[in-house]
Amino acid sequence: xxxxIEKLKTEAGLNExxxxxxxxxxxxxxxxxxxxxxxxxxxxxxxSSTTSTDEPDFMG
Length: 60
Known about the structure:
single chain, about 65% helix, mainly alpha
């Protein structure tokens, strides 16, 4: 999640607290659109701290 926080700070001009709140709001929004069984997948995705470019392509 640190990578995403840094991206929000850099690209959106948010501070650390604002970036964390933005991620939390986005997470809750996405979870509201998905069945509960998928919530852990969202949490795992957002909390991953990988910087690899070999991330899976979930869009196909």
